[in-house]
């Protein structure tokens, strides 16, 4: 992921929306290394995109997969 793509996606997101996406990503796995952080930010971007496409998008969809 490029930094400009991450900045654009998060700049257009509201604070609550961004916090929700980060919470979902952290609930799956806390990042501890380079690859974990790449995965974390990718999951945040995917969550933000899913919420934009469908405002009814359930946060539990990610959490159910992890369980």
Describe the structure using short key phrases.
67 residues, single chain, mainly alpha
List the helices and strands and how they pair.
Elements: H1 3-11, H2 15-28, H3 34-53, H4 60-66
Can you summarize this structure?
The chain has helices at residues 3-11, 15-28, 34-53, 60-66. It has 67 residues and is mostly helical.
What features would you describe in this structure?
The protein is mainly α and 67 residues long. The protein has one domain. It has 4 helices and no strands. The protein has helices at 3-11, 15-28, 34-53, 60-66. Helix 2 (15-28) packs across helix 3 and helix 2 (15-28) packs parallel to helix 4 (60-66). The longest helix is centred in the middle third of the chain and has 20 residues, at 34-53.
